[in-house]
Design brief:
alpha/beta; Rossmann fold; 226 residues; 7 helices; single chain; four-stranded antiparallel sheet; binds adenosine-5'-diphosphate; binds magnesium ion
């Protein structure tokens, strides 16, 4: 048995398929994985190996067909939708592939978005957002729209948004996939800083230059952790 006090996340025999009949794709075929608080983990594997599906299960965007997902010792799968949304917004910051920013909102509004579901007042939200924008060095772009930004600036906005609710765990899907190597280094140093500040970080990548920043590499092949 794992020590539940140190294991932040435990997956046991997680399975997920898409489609039916002949078209069924077995994206995850029985994943077992434990992640400790404060780890910075790279999930690596070929395209189609199940990396994004695994991250989406961890971020509760996709529900596993089988298996157990424990977060701080509590069973996550089987939670009701409302409980699940509350858990997700409190505990998990998700950085989706290609940023997934809203183009009709400013940088400030994008980062403020996750805060508006809580009960915070407007001044508290503004203070929090401005702090994050300064931390991520994107404050001067606060009134710009995503289409006016560089890739690196979009990624910093997406990271600020993921940090808005001060989550314990940060999940990022190919966060530097479309960035040049200098911007990649800046972004990865930001992840390291967040990790040193206590965040547990899980990054999907197929780049060794990215996994080199992490303190553990998990390899996934054909829907199984190797
Ligand atoms: N929503 C979906 N519907 C159908 N098939 C999917 C879906 N999401 C992923 N898949 C399939 O599951 C497999 C694993 O995909 P994915 O987790 O995205 O891999 P990776 O991120 O490693 O490239 C692939 O064969 C992919 O086509
Ligand atoms: Mg993927």
């Amino acid at each position: 048995m794992e020590d539940k006090l140190t294991e932040k996340i435990v997956l046991r025999n997680i399975k997920k398929s898409f489609g039916t009949g002949d078209r069924t794709v077995h994206a995850l075929q029985g994943v077992n994985l434990s992640i400790k608080e404060g780890e910075m983990v790279a999930v690596m594997g070929k395209s189609g190996s199940g990396k994004s599906t695994l991250l989406n299960v961890l971020g509760c965007l996709v529900q596993a067909d089988e298996g157990e997902y424990l977060f701080e010792g509590s069973l996550i799968n089987g939670m009701r939708q409302k409980q699940l949304s509350a858990f997700r917004s409190r505990k998990i910051g998700f950085i989706l592939q290609y940023y997934a920013l809203l183009d009709d909102r400013t940088v400030f509004q994008n980062v403020a978005l996750p805060l508006q579901y809580g009960r915070k007042n407007k001044d508290d939200i503004a203070a929090r957002v401005e702090g994050l924008l300064r931390q991520l060095e994107i404050y001067d772009k606060r009134n710009n729209h995503p289409y006016e930004l560089s890739g690196g600036q979009c990624q910093r906005t997406a990271i600020a948004r993921a940090l808005a609710n001060n989550p314990d765990v940060i999940l990022a899907d190919e966060p530097t996939g479309s960035l040049d190597s200098r911007t990649e280094a800046t972004i990865m140093e930001m992840f390291q800083q967040m990790n040193r500040a206590g965040k547990t970080i899980i990054i999907v990548t197929h780049d060794k230059s990215v996994s080199d920043y992490c303190n553990r590499v998990v390899v996934i092949k054909d829907g199984l952790v190797q």
